[in-house]
Amino acid sequence: MTVAGHTIIRKTESVCPTCLVQLPAVIYETGDAEVRMHKECPEHGVFDVYIWPDAQRYKWYSGMAVPAVARTPQTASTKGCPHDCGLCPGHERSITLPEVEVTWRCNLACPVCFMFDGDIPADPTMNELRHMFESILRFDGQNLPIQITGGEPTIREDLPQIFEMARQIGFEAVELNTNGLVIGTDIEYLRSLKKAGLTNVYLQFDGLAPKTTIQLRGRDLLGIKMQAIDNCAQVGIPVILSVAIVKGVNDHELGDLIKFCMANPDAIKGLALQPAFVSGRFTVQNVKHLSIADVAGLIAEQSDGKITVDDFWPVGSSHPLCYGSTVLIGTADNFEPFTRQLGEDEYRRLIDRSSPQGAAFQDIIARLAENPDTVCTLPILIMEYMDAWTMDLERARGCNLAVTVTDGTSIPFCVYHLTDGSGKRVYPHGGRNRHGRCA
């Protein structure tokens, strides 16, 4: 396949956004240096998709790959990527951040929710969860963080027992992915989770304006999310803010969010920025895809140049085009991105491909600093997830973030949440239909 009149950057495979059949795809550079993907489905036609704003930076990221270590496969390669995940022998990287969904129920009905598909299976049993944890232990090891997610995990009355089990099995870091409604209203419950083994909270937090939470979550939740941060600070639980970025809704708030995080270093230990992707329920119309470089550009504008696009670098644990990261060192008024202190050769020498994506540069700082506990830092991670439009199967095969389902197999995050033109998932929640237990 060729794209007449344009420079081909590389060839890959993708899927048809309508039917999800695997298709050859071309990544190419336009005359004004944009990066786009071209693919053609015999049944549904031609798709030409925006990918990145800057071909030069895209090529630089692509060239910063760290050698991969493959993971022991659990499934066979029969139908072709992305339909053989589990992981299959074609997957090129080990998993450094496994996710375990403990429920598919929620106490919100967010207008933007990549989990939603109208089907809510029964929660995994404790025996199923034990099997999932043991599978992660066997295939991925215990010296890595795991993330307890959902749905909304705090809906489960036995969530403290789930944390206890994860720690007893041998995981040293167990993270809670939550919308904050429960931990923001019940500090004693939060204390019980910490006692059971909770090590940090990954808090859904989309902006500092009530209007933002109304548009993305259906109601004004800013006050309760602020209280969740305060409760975590009182209990001694580090918080990472997880921000779904939707163009025209909260993309103008990134500078203020960074200032907020830097002003609260005792409570907030990281900022994860996730440009929205089309999966599940997505009621915001005509939203342009935002890449790592687009988000970095917005941060550059909103920080008055104190942070630049060039300050964001790929991390070593995954495909280089999946994440862009930096770490701010200093205070809210006086900081510098740590990546300015690195050269490419030093990066390759110091980066640890086993570091989870959010910790990649902090781990380098810890290795270099005489007393890393005295270094005030804010890691910022831009996480560019893929949907059926932007799916690049070369990237999917290099993923380090996987959801472990109830039969113990693991599916790369973007593939697990992949939906076709009618909203149907390739992989049902928890893989329930694999063993006939759909609820």
Summarize the structure in short:
This protein is of the alpha/beta class and 439 residues long. Helix content is 25%, strand content 22%. It has two domains: 7-67 and 390-435; 97-383, Alpha-Beta Barrel (TIM Barrel).
Question: Could you walk me through the main structural features you see in this protein, from its secondary elements to its overall organization?
Answer:
With 439 residues, this protein is of the alpha/beta class. It has two domains: 7-67 and 390-435; 97-383, Aldolase class I (TIM Barrel, Alpha-Beta Barrel). Helices cover 25% and strands 22% of the residues. It contains twelve helices and 17 strands. It has an eleven-stranded mixed β-sheet, sandwiched between helices. The termini are far apart.
- Give the helix level as a range of percent: 25-40%
Q: What's the CATH class label of the largest domain?
A: Alpha Beta
The separation of the N and C termini measures 43 Å
Give the spatial strand order of the biggest sheet: 14-13-15-11-10-9-8-7-5-16-17
At the third CATH level, what is the topology name of the largest domain?
TIM Barrel
Major sheet size, sense and barrel closure:
11 strands, mixed
Furnish the topology, listing elements before pairings.
Blueprint: E1 7-15, E2 22-29, E3 35-41, E4 45-52, H1 55-62, E5 97-101, E6 112-113, H2 126-140, E7 145-149, H3 159-169, E8 173-178, H4 187-196, E9 200-204, H5 210-217, H6 222-235, E10 239-245, H7 254-262, E11 268-275, E12 281-282, H8 292-302, E13 323-330, E14 335-337, H9 344-350, H10 360-368, E15 377-383, H11 393-397, E16 401-404, E17 410-412, H12 413-416
Parallel strand pairs: 5-7, 5-16, 7-8, 8-9, 9-10, 10-11, 11-15
Antiparallel strand pairs: 1-2, 2-3, 3-4, 6-12, 13-14, 13-15, 16-17
Helix pairs in contact: 2-3, 3-4, 4-6
